[in-house]
Protein backbone atom coordinates (compact mmCIF):
# COMPACT_ATOMS: atom_id res chain seq x y z
CA UNK A 1 0.00 0.00 0.00
CA UNK A 2 1.28 3.47 -0.88
CA UNK A 3 0.43 5.79 2.02
CA UNK A 4 1.20 8.92 0.00
CA UNK A 5 -2.00 8.13 -1.94
CA UNK A 6 -3.88 9.01 1.27
CA UNK A 7 -2.19 12.36 1.96
CA UNK A 8 -3.73 15.48 0.49
CA UNK A 9 -1.71 18.68 0.00
CA UNK A 10 -3.62 21.90 0.65
CA UNK A 11 -1.79 24.93 -0.80
CA UNK A 12 -1.57 28.16 1.18
CA UNK A 13 -2.97 26.69 4.40
CA UNK A 14 -2.91 27.88 7.15
CA UNK A 15 -1.16 30.84 5.51
CA UNK A 16 0.23 31.75 2.09
CA UNK A 17 3.32 29.78 1.10
CA UNK A 18 2.56 26.74 3.29
CA UNK A 19 1.66 23.43 1.64
CA UNK A 20 -0.33 21.67 4.35
CA UNK A 21 -0.13 17.87 4.44
CA UNK A 22 -3.62 16.67 5.34
CA UNK A 23 -4.00 13.16 6.80
CA UNK A 24 -7.82 13.23 6.64
CA UNK A 25 -7.95 10.93 3.56
CA UNK A 26 -5.80 8.44 5.49
CA UNK A 27 -8.16 8.58 8.48
CA UNK A 28 -11.17 7.97 6.24
CA UNK A 29 -9.76 4.68 4.90
CA UNK A 30 -9.68 1.98 7.58
CA UNK A 31 -7.34 -0.27 5.57
CA UNK A 32 -4.85 2.55 5.14
CA UNK A 33 -5.05 3.29 8.88
CA UNK A 34 -4.47 -0.36 9.75
CA UNK A 35 -1.50 -0.46 7.38
CA UNK A 36 -0.03 2.73 8.86
CA UNK A 37 -0.32 1.35 12.41
CA UNK A 38 1.30 -1.93 11.41
CA UNK A 39 4.17 -0.02 9.79
CA UNK A 40 4.61 2.19 12.87
CA UNK A 41 4.91 -0.80 15.22
CA UNK A 42 7.22 -2.82 12.94
CA UNK A 43 10.34 -1.10 14.27
CA UNK A 44 9.35 -1.89 17.85
CA UNK A 45 9.64 -5.69 17.62
CA UNK A 46 11.55 -6.97 20.63
CA UNK A 47 11.24 -3.63 22.44
CA UNK A 48 9.38 -3.29 25.72
CA UNK A 49 7.14 -0.19 25.68
CA UNK A 50 5.16 0.87 28.77
CA UNK A 51 3.08 3.74 27.32
CA UNK A 52 2.37 5.60 24.12
CA UNK A 53 2.45 9.39 24.39
CA UNK A 54 0.61 11.47 21.78
CA UNK A 55 1.00 15.17 21.04
CA UNK A 56 -2.15 17.29 20.64
CA UNK A 57 -4.14 16.96 18.63
CA UNK A 58 -3.48 14.79 15.59
CA UNK A 59 -0.94 12.77 17.57
CA UNK A 60 -3.88 11.47 19.61
CA UNK A 61 -5.44 9.77 16.59
CA UNK A 62 -2.71 7.26 15.82
CA UNK A 63 -1.32 7.41 19.36
CA UNK A 64 -4.46 5.73 20.69
CA UNK A 65 -4.42 3.16 17.88
CA UNK A 66 -0.78 2.38 18.66
CA UNK A 67 -1.53 2.02 22.38
CA UNK A 68 -4.42 -0.34 21.66
CA UNK A 69 -2.35 -2.39 19.22
CA UNK A 70 0.47 -2.68 21.77
CA UNK A 71 -1.95 -3.36 24.64
CA UNK A 72 -0.67 -0.48 26.76
CA UNK A 73 -1.83 2.88 28.10
CA UNK A 74 -1.96 6.23 26.33
CA UNK A 75 -0.80 9.61 27.67
CA UNK A 76 -1.81 12.93 26.07
CA UNK A 77 0.47 15.96 25.79
CA UNK A 78 -1.73 19.01 25.41
CA UNK A 79 -1.73 22.76 24.98
CA UNK A 80 -1.82 24.83 28.20
CA UNK A 81 -4.82 24.71 30.51
CA UNK A 82 -6.41 21.67 28.84
CA UNK A 83 -5.40 19.05 31.41
CA UNK A 84 -7.32 19.00 34.73
CA UNK A 85 -4.69 17.69 37.19
CA UNK A 86 -1.26 19.10 38.12
CA UNK A 87 0.91 19.55 35.04
CA UNK A 88 4.48 20.04 33.96
CA UNK A 89 5.01 22.56 31.14
CA UNK A 90 7.63 23.03 28.46
CA UNK A 91 7.93 26.15 26.30
CA UNK A 92 9.48 25.94 22.84
CA UNK A 93 10.15 28.14 19.82
CA UNK A 94 8.27 27.97 16.56
CA UNK A 95 9.22 29.47 13.23
CA UNK A 96 6.72 32.28 13.94
CA UNK A 97 6.86 32.65 17.74
CA UNK A 98 6.66 30.34 20.72
CA UNK A 99 4.26 27.91 22.33
CA UNK A 100 3.92 25.65 25.37
CA UNK A 101 2.82 22.07 25.92
CA UNK A 102 1.85 20.27 29.12
CA UNK A 103 1.59 16.78 30.56
CA UNK A 104 0.10 15.51 33.81
CA UNK A 105 2.86 15.23 36.42
CA UNK A 106 1.71 11.74 37.38
CA UNK A 107 1.36 10.39 33.82
CA UNK A 108 4.87 8.94 33.55
CA UNK A 109 6.73 6.98 36.19
CA UNK A 110 10.52 7.04 36.43
CA UNK A 111 12.08 4.46 34.14
CA UNK A 112 9.02 3.87 31.96
CA UNK A 113 9.84 3.13 28.35
CA UNK A 114 7.86 5.35 25.99
CA UNK A 115 6.78 5.61 22.39
CA UNK A 116 6.10 9.24 21.42
CA UNK A 117 3.83 9.88 18.44
CA UNK A 118 2.73 12.87 16.38
CA UNK A 119 1.38 13.11 12.86
CA UNK A 120 4.05 15.39 11.39
CA UNK A 121 7.70 16.26 11.97
CA UNK A 122 8.43 19.71 10.58
CA UNK A 123 10.99 21.89 12.41
CA UNK A 124 11.08 19.56 15.41
CA UNK A 125 10.24 22.12 18.10
CA UNK A 126 7.11 20.45 19.41
CA UNK A 127 8.60 16.95 19.41
CA UNK A 128 11.79 18.17 21.12
CA UNK A 129 9.72 19.91 23.81
CA UNK A 130 7.69 16.72 24.31
CA UNK A 131 10.91 14.71 24.70
CA UNK A 132 12.13 17.21 27.30
CA UNK A 133 8.88 16.84 29.26
CA UNK A 134 9.09 13.05 29.21
CA UNK A 135 12.72 13.06 30.29
CA UNK A 136 11.97 15.50 33.15
CA UNK A 137 9.44 12.97 34.42
CA UNK A 138 12.03 10.20 34.25
CA UNK A 139 10.74 8.47 31.12
CA UNK A 140 12.97 6.75 28.59
CA UNK A 141 12.03 7.50 24.99
CA UNK A 142 12.43 4.33 22.95
CA UNK A 143 11.21 5.80 19.68
CA UNK A 144 9.47 8.84 18.21
CA UNK A 145 6.97 8.06 15.43
CA UNK A 146 5.52 10.31 12.75
CA UNK A 147 3.20 9.67 9.85
CA UNK A 148 4.91 12.41 7.80
CA UNK A 149 8.35 14.02 7.94
CA UNK A 150 9.21 17.19 6.02
CA UNK A 151 12.89 16.37 5.45
CA UNK A 152 13.82 19.80 4.09
CA UNK A 153 13.03 21.40 7.48
CA UNK A 154 15.54 19.12 9.24
CA UNK A 155 13.42 18.66 12.37
CA UNK A 156 15.15 15.35 13.06
CA UNK A 157 18.26 17.33 14.10
CA UNK A 158 16.37 18.47 17.22
CA UNK A 159 15.81 14.87 18.31
CA UNK A 160 19.41 13.59 18.51
CA UNK A 161 18.81 11.15 21.38
CA UNK A 162 15.70 9.55 19.95
CA UNK A 163 15.26 6.86 17.31
CA UNK A 164 12.95 8.50 14.76
CA UNK A 165 10.55 6.53 12.56
CA UNK A 166 8.60 8.36 9.84
CA UNK A 167 6.39 6.58 7.33
CA UNK A 168 6.29 9.25 4.62
CA UNK A 169 9.05 11.68 3.64
CA UNK A 170 8.59 14.91 1.69
Automatic annotation (TrEMBL):
Entry EC no(s): 2.4.2.7
Gene Ontology annotations of biological process type: adenine salvage; AMP salvage; purine ribonucleoside salvage
Chief localisation class: cytoplasm
Matches recorded under Pfam families: Pribosyltran (PF00156)
Annotated localization: Cytoplasm
Cellular component GO terms, alphabetical: cytoplasm
Pathway noted in the entry: Purine metabolism; AMP biosynthesis via salvage pathway; AMP from adenine: step 1/1
Keywords attached to this entry: Cytoplasm, Glycosyltransferase, Purine salvage, Transferase
Superkingdom in the source lineage: Bacteria
Reaction catalysed by this enzyme: AMP + diphosphate = 5-phospho-alpha-D-ribose 1-diphosphate + adenine
Boundaries of every Phosphoribosyltransferase domain copy: 29-144
One example GO MF annotation: adenine binding
Keyword field contains DNA damage: no
Protein family according to the UniProt entry: Belongs to the purine/pyrimidine phosphoribosyltransferase family.
Xref: PANTHER family: ADENINE PHOSPHORIBOSYLTRANSFERASE (PTHR32315)
HAMAP family per the UniProt record, alphabetical: Aden_phosphoribosyltr
Function comment: Catalyzes a salvage reaction resulting in the formation of AMP, that is energically less costly than de novo synthesis.
Record note on quaternary structure: Homodimer.
Record's protein name: Adenine phosphoribosyltransferase
Amino acid sequence: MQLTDYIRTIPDFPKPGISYKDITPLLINHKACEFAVSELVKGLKGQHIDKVVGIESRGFLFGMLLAQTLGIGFVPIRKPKKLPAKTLSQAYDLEYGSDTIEIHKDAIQKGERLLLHDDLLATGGTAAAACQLLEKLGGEIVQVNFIIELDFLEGRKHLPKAKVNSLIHY
